[in-house]
Design brief:
Number of strands of chain A: 0
Radius of gyration of chain A: 20 Å
Radius of gyration of chain B: 22 Å
Shape of chain B: flat
Distance between the termini of chain B: 46 Å
Mean pLDDT of chain B: 69
Number of helices of chain A: 12
Order of helices and strands of chain B: HHH
Low-confidence stretches of chain B: none
Strand content of chain B: under 5%
Order of helices and strands of chain A: HHHHHHHHHHHH
Number of domains of chain A: 1
Oligomer: heterodimer
Mean pLDDT of chain A: 87
Largest sheet of chain B: none
Helix content of chain B: 55-70%
Chain lengths: ~325, ~110
């Protein structure tokens, strides 16, 4: 790999620019579909059928006056936001695109959720750094949500590992279906992991019924309260890049779109990602928010133990078979 | 080893690009017009009531948060050293304190 390839991979495809483009596309799609479901038009003015509206919103925010409360630790907030978006974009770069990229070090199935987890944690930290009651409440709710889905999501890597015998995302994507054909007894566990994973990704995206971070303080902006201008732009973009990368990670880990190499690998990943995004938006638009207390109960009572059990059983059965 | 270097270089490039974008927005955006008059942040409560500030965050939340965040990092650490057998031990070690702390957090 030469320097030019490294630059292109990191900054354009499949790195920063791709991550930001996908995040903005997801946001545009969400706005249009949700509007249609609520008998509205959604954005119509900017770009083709209004699809460029999220991009224009971010550009507009970047040029806005930045109003910072006296109590905010500005350096902490700025550093947390920049690091958060960088980690999420780096995780996007590590996805098994099948074309270009940096290749796999053999443990990307764990490295990607680590990056995503830290990226989300930094967004929570940015909220807490304002020391405003609204933001702190929003930030604590955001962290509460993160704690309730994070471990469950990482446990599901166990299913892919048991099926393919590897933590290399390229290998997982190439061999998941073959592995399931050779170990059919893992199929019910995989199916369960798929369902639990979808619920956890919905929480990771921060969509309904898991829009807990905005609850109670949404009139003031939830965990985004006190952020304006470039900080709000980075906050929103970081959250969206994180969400869309988590969704594509889930798709490549548990659905392993085929083919796994070449241009069609990229197309198949994006196409299946689009289907899952569509389902996620439908769930978002058609379910009411649950309370944080109920989310913690649901997560600690059912989802986390279930996902750990799925991972444990998969590893036991997969290990016994091989 | 070269792969690790590429990863580090790629992350550094992304970080530099994001920082540059933030700094460019900082330079190009209009200056805050009322900087000297900045007051306390938004306050909870009734209009006219004295503004409250909230010290973040409760210690229990930090503890739960630190344990929760250490799980993915520790899993990665185990995997990169070919100590995957440690993962069930990790779960046994981390989940009970998390459940206890999670229950406390729920009540806080």
């Amino acid at each position: 790999m030469n320097v030019l390839e490294l630059f292109v991979s990191a900054l354009i495809y499949p790195g920063l620019l791709t991550a930001v483009s996908l995040a903005l596309s997801f946001e545009a799609l969400k706005r249009k579909i949700e509007a249609r479901m609520q008998n509205r038009m959604g954005p119509t003015y900017t770009g083709l059928r209004g699809f460029a509206q999220p991009l224009i919103d971010i550009v507009k925010l970047l040029g806005k006056e930045d109003i910072t409360p006296l109590t905010m630790h500005e350096a902490v907030a700025a550093a947390a936001l920049v690091w958060s978006i960088s980690l999420a974009a780096f995780a996007c770069l590590l996805l098994p695109w099948g074309l270009g990229g940096l290749g796999d070090i053999g443990y990307n199935a764990l490295l990607i959720p680590v990056c995503l987890s830290l990226a989300a944690a930094l967004l929570g930290l940015a909220s807490l750094s304002t020391r405003s009651p609204y933001s702190v409440i929003g930030g604590l709710r955001f962290i509460g949500l993160l704690m309730s889905y994070d471990i469950g999501l990482i446990s599901l890597v166990g299913v892919a590992y048991a099926t393919t015998g590897s933590l290399d995302m390229d290998v997982i994507r190439a061999k998941l279906w073959e592995g399931l054909a050779h170990k059919p007894f893992l199929f019910p566990l995989w199916l369960l992991a798929l369902l639990v994973g979808f619920i956890l990704v919905q929480a990771d995206l921060g969509e309904d019924p898991f829009t807990i971070a905005e609850a109670e303080t949404e009139v003031a902006g939830g965990f985004e309260a006190e952020f304006s201008g470039r900080k709000l732009a980075f906050m929103r973009l970081g959250h969206e890049v994180h969400g869309v990368t988590a969704l594509l990670f889930y798709v490549s880990l548990l659905l392993a779109p085929q083919p796994s190499q070449g241009v069609f690998a990229v197309i198949s990943l994006l196409a299946i990602g689009l289907v899952i995004a569509f389902l996620s938006i439908i769930v978002d638009a058609s379910t009411p928010r649950i309370r944080l207390k109920d989310m913690i109960k649901l997560s600690w009572g059912y989802l986390v133990p279930l996902s750990i059990l799925i991972a444990f059983l998969s590893l036991m059965l997969g290990g016994a078979a091989s | 080893m070269a792969q690790y270097f590429y990863y580090l270089a790629a992350f550094t490039l992304i970080l530099i690009a994001s920082t540059a974008y933030y700094i460019a927005a900082f330079i190009l955006a209009p200056r805050p017009r009322r900087r000297g008059e900045a007051t306390l942040p938004y306050a909870c409560g009734e209009k006219g009531q004295e503004a409250k500030s909230l010290d973040p965050p409760y210690p229990i939340v930090l503890v739960v948060f630190a344990i929760a965040e250490s799980v993915p990092i520790a899993s990665f650490f185990c995997a990169t050293r070919d100590r995957l057998a440690l993962l069930p031990l990790l779960v046994v070690a981390f989940v009970p304190p998390l459940l206890v702390a999670g229950r406390k957090y729920e009540r806080s």
